[in-house]
Amino acid sequence: MKILFVTSPGGHLGQIIPLQDWWKEHSRSWVTFKQTDAERALSEEDVTWAFFPTTRNIPNALRNLRLALPTLRRIKPDVLVSIGAGVSVPFFIIARFLGIRTVFIECIDRITLPTLSGKLCYPLSDLFCIQWEEQRRFYPESVNIGPVL
Description:
CATH class: Alpha Beta
Distance between the termini: 23 Å
CATH superfamily: Glycogen Phosphorylase B
Strand order of the largest sheet: 3-2-1-4-5-6-7
């Protein structure tokens, strides 16, 4: 299986790293921002650097939308997996258009309010995962996978 992980660095990336026992057995690529923690954690990985910042930044959202199409065509993933944040939305839109399966995992620290990325990616996801049962009120069709940390 070929996986494309699309995530922000920091805590978002930090929630994917513990899943290494699963993903290290598969061919994989990454899309994230060129920041020190991501460069260190992914130094041996195939990484495409996205445009930052994304939080309500329309020009960078459009740049990442333009980045998504050639990246997805080049990598040809079987599945796109994300724990957020903003960079996930343009990639989920293009993945849906190309028929690529998508999995979104809502952040572990968002129990009382949903993330904006989660709300936008929920209808675009083939599988939407939550880490706390309390998150189900925002995402009724989700699957509770429990805390990944």
